[in-house]
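for the recovery benchmark. tokens below, seq after
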């Protein structure tokens, strides 16, 4: 077999392959055997039909077609390996010459990973939010905890802001009561903004037994987005009473004996959260700067496939679960189809560039993933998916996705290398020392799933053996 590689552009090549006919012998034998098992010829037992009879009855061309289809993937793979190509996706194959007994010649055009020059990233500098927890932040956290321990007491007076009312609702559109527009015994806190626009004004001032009618745009259901006439009847009014902020509250709501200890614990929790957010922010901004520095050609077909995958997942999974179609989604978002497609394309480009660059960094820095790192990452992914670690691990193995998870961890480590080399300062001008960068980078969407679907590049690479 002879093969030659022609570079069409930085992300696509054409392989020209010539195969001497004698190298097709195994595939020809397999073709005759397959046809033998599929056809019947009078006077011969099934599977015992001579090759010359098959040629006479069914044509030598049918045998050659079967043999070539069987042989192409093997010769294509050999040419890819010989050319040391990092291919993406399936090739477009064109048989240019087939001379019986002499020669098979064909070409295969396929996308390849571009060669990427990793830029000097040591000069990257980013600014992140300062790690500040104010007394007001602590007050808010404690107040949220206090809200969770609020009690309600029935009152015989008009409803006011902050009260909890029990209400019945009936919605009409064009004078007709909606089948899914009736609800009874709904508990609602006035001022929470959790129900329909206009309901706070309607129920404020009503006592138990009172009712009011208002107009509002429906947020869900069969008439979502339409203006409806809503009748609300208050059946009960209750006041919310918050516990006193004292040591007794601290003992009731936490493991601490004093309010001061509870507040100190809240401050530490907020500091930890902001520290994690600061590290995540640093990684995202460092990655943005790295993407600006590197020139990364994008394979056109890979990009088209990635855009299509993202659109499909949005339409058939995310929106489907919310009972929306793409048209309604765009209306809610206030976007045109063109704007949506441009945004999707930009996100896909960013995802593919991220994966290509970080994968190249993995190779350049010779980063490896050990079993402990893979297990920790698997545990985090299982938790975010709502599955048990055992269930998630089984699904990963059965789906052949272990290499994908290894790639995610490796890319997280690659980003951590860049972050470590970068200068990170906060908004106060102070140098930020990030801790546990490897772990944080692993969990950062920008690193491991910056490309939700940018793993498609790896999956498409694997498909080359099925071409």
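predicted aa per position
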């Amino acid at each position: 077999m002879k093969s030659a590689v022609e570079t069409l552009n930085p992300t696509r090549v054409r392989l020209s392959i010539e195969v001497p006919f004698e190298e097709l012998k195994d595939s020809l034998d397999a073709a005759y055997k397959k046809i033998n098992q599929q056809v019947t010829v009078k006077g011969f037992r099934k599977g015992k039909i001579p090759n010359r009879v098959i040629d006479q009855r069914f044509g030598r061309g049918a045998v050659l077609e079967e043999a070539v289809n069987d042989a192409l993937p093997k010769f294509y793979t050999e040419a890819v390996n010989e050319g040391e190509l990092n291919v993406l996706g399936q090739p477009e194959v064109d048989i240019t010459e087939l001379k019986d007994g002499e020669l098979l010649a064909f070409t295969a055009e396929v996308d390849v990973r571009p060669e990427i020059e990793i830029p000097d990233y040591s000069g990257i500098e980013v600014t992140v939010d300062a790690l500040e927890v104010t007394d007001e932040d602590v007050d808010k956290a404690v107040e949220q905890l206090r809200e969770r321990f609020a009690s309600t007491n029935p009152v015989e007076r008009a409803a006011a802001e902050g009260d909890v009312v029990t209400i019945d609702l009936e919605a009409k559109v064009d004078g007709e009561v909606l089948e899914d527009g009736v609800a009874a015994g709904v508990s609602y806190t006035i001022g929470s903004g959790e129900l329909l626009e206009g309901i706070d004004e309607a129920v404020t001032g009503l006592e138990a037994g009172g009712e009011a009618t208002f107009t509002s745009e429906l947020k869900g259901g069969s008439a979502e987005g339409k203006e409806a006439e809503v009748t609300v009847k208050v059946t009960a009014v209750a006041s919310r009473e918050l516990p006193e902020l004292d040591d007794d509250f601290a003992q009731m709501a936490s493991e601490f004996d004093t309010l001061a200890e509870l507040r100190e614990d809240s401050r530490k929790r907020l500091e930890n959260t902001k520290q994690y957010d600061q590290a995540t922010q640093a990684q995202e901004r460092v990655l943005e700067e790295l993407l600006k520095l590197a020139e990364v050609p994008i394979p056109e077909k890979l990009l088209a496939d990635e855009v299509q995958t993202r659109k499909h997942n949005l339409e058939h999974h995310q929106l489907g679960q919310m009972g929306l179609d793409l048209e309604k989604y765009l209306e809610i978002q206030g976007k045109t189809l063109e704007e949506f497609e441009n945004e999707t394309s930009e996100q896909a480009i960013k995802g593919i560039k991220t994966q290509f660059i970080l994968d190249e960094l993995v190779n350049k820095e010779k980063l490896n993933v050990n079993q402990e790192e893979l297990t920790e990452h698997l545990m985090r992914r299982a938790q975010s998916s709502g599955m048990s670690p055992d269930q998630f691990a089984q699904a990963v193995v059965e789906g052949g996705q272990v290499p994908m998870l290894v790639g995610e961890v490796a890319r997280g480590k690659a980003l951590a290398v860049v972050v470590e080399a970068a200068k990170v300062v906060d908004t106060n001008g102070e140098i930020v020392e990030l801790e546990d960068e490897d772990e944080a980078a692993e969990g950062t969407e920008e690193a491991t799933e910056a490309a939700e679907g940018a793993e498609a590049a790896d999956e498409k690479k694997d498909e080359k053996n099925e071409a």
